[in-house]
Amino acid sequence: MIIRKKEHWFLMLFIWRGSVLPRLLPRLVLLLIVAIAVVYYEPTLARWDIHMNPAPFTLFGIALALFLGFRNSASYERFWEARRLWGGLLNTGRSLTRQAHTLVDQPSQPAPFVNCLIALAFSLKHQLRQTDPDPDLDRLLPANLASRAKAARWKPVFLLKTLGYWVQSVKQCGNIDSIRQQSFDQQLNQLSDIIGGCERIASTPLPYSYSVLLHRTVYVYCFMLPFGLVESLGWMTPIVVTFIAYTYVALEAIADELEDPFGTAPNDLALDAMCRNLENSLLEMDERPLNPDPEDEEDKYYLT
Q: Using alpha carbons only, how large is the chain's radius of gyration in Å?
């Protein structure tokens, strides 16, 4: 995720990292070459009586912009909902850690409970990104619990059940009553809702046929645009067409990135940084040393 202060309006014209231009550059170069070829062979097209009025492109461009706006709105809604869920994960983790310290009459060492909460966040991140959670599980959990968590298909849910067992054991020891156990259970239910919400976003993309239709329409429109503008713009056609294409193609590319907010693209959620923030927040509440944040020498604005 790119996090940086707003630059001067002129400097923002040249920002490279964080924009989708690096991905789009080969396509825009191809379109520029096609537009130059159309201008170069315009006399030949005129002899063959191949003419295209620019008016239909104007009307169709407005309609296409509206559809792209809807696609971007739907993708950003998924992105923002995912961000809210991960914010809720941090808040619920803090509440559970506070309760483990303050609601238990004779509190045993709450470190295993806190470590399990932290491991749940990391395992959820790995599940959403389909990466290997084993190093984090080995780092945060006892060997026996870590091996059982590795064997589970839905590791966050397994760790959620482990948290429930911890609350049950405290209740059986008489250190909390039924009312305080219910308070714990409400927070655990919120964790369950957060896990399910993230799984819903990750497993339910926007309808594929809609994405394909919009993708085809954008590129057909952009590659036909030089034929409609060549007679009125002449050698300015490649520049104008490339700029218009950049707008439409970039909007589609941004929507593709935001559609899956749990990925590792520059504009996706910084789940690594969020997990580190959650870990340090809970460690501080548990009165333990914090883990230093890694510094990225290459790009201090890019959080994964």
A: 26
For residue 171, tell me if it sits in a domain: yes
Question: Percentage of residues in the chain with pLDDT exceeding 70?
Answer: 89
**Using CA of residue 276, residue 150, residue 202, residue 213, what is the dihedral sign?**
positive
Three-class SS of residue 290? coil
Does residue 130 belong to any structural domain of this protein? yes
> Which helix H or strand E contains 263, and what residues bound it?
none
Total number of residues shown for the chain: 304
Residue 122 confidence (pLDDT) above 90: yes
Kindly report the number of other CB atoms within 10 A of residue 172's CB atom.
9
Residue 142 DSSP class: -
Hey, is 19 helix, strand or coil? strand
Give me the DSSP letters along 291-303.
PPPPP-SS-TTB-
Show the domain range for 120. Answer: 26-285
pLDDT tens digit string along 42-57?
777 767 766 677 778 8
Residue 57 has phi, psi (to 5 degrees) of: -65, -35
Nearest to 202 by CA among 142, 271, 292: 271
**Of residues 218, 195, 201, 217, the one with CA closest to residue 268:** 201
- Of the candidates 203, 201, 212, the one whose C-alpha atom is nearest the C-alpha of residue 269 is 201
Is position 296 within any domain?
A: no
Question: How far is the C-alpha of 163 from the C-alpha of 185, rounded, in Å?
Answer: 10
Whether residue 71 is contained in a domain is answered as yes
Residue-wise pLDDT tens digits, 57-104: 888 888 888 888 888 898 999 999 999 999 999 999 999 999 998 888
Give the list of residues 6+ apart from residue 43 with CB closer than 8 angstroms, or none: none
Using an 8 Å Cβ cutoff, are 299 and 17 in contact?
yes
* CB of 302 closer than 8 Å to CB of 155: no
Query: What's the structural domain count of the chain?
Result: 1
